[in-house]
Design goal:
Helices cover 67% and strands 0% of the residues. With 152 residues, it is mostly helical.
């Protein structure tokens, strides 16, 4: 029963790790799409304004306002996407740490079983305490958050 429980935990966290990886990849594709659309939009605006007969000072406020607004929307979209990516990376790291702990517990359990863990009466003592099998959700240390801080 102990083996089955730990194997289930390992399987769950392995699947969660893969799920978070797929979510990160999807968000990165979304980010690339945002950049592509934004640069296409910029090129269209600049091409429309580059015609010399249409470029007059009294009409420049409309493209400037449009470009400023589009930059703001682009910045907010990129910031939100990066926040999602960082959240998924954090969750993936937590699942990986928990997966590592569960794997280590399973290895210890197998080692005890292989070494013939039994008491003087011949009863198997693979698990001496039920708390020994508890695997809590692991979180990375505070230093892990340093990689998500912006330096600009």
């Amino acid at each position: 029963a102990a083996f089955q429980a730990i194997n289930t935990i390992i399987q769950l966290h392995f699947e969660k790790t893969l799920e978070k990886k797929r979510a990160i990849d999807l968000q990165k594709k979304e980010l690339h799409k945002l950049f592509l659309l934004f640069f296409i939009f910029l090129s269209l605006i600049f091409m429309a304004e580059a015609q010399p007969n249409r470029l007059q000072c009294r009409h420049c406020w409309a493209p400037i306002t449009l470009l400023s607004l589009s930059h703001l929307i682009f910045y907010v979209s990129v910031a939100q996407t990066l926040r999602c990516i960082n959240g998924f990376k954090y969750q993936r790291r937590c699942h990986k740490l928990t997966l590592g702990l569960a794997t280590e517990k399973l290895r210890e359990l197998k080692t005890r079983l292989a070494s013939g863990g039994s008491d003087q009466y011949g009863h198997e003592l693979v698990v001496s305490d039920e708390g020994e099998l508890e695997i809590h959700y692991q979180e990375p240390p505070e230093s892990y958050f340093g990689k998500f801080k912006r330096n600009w």
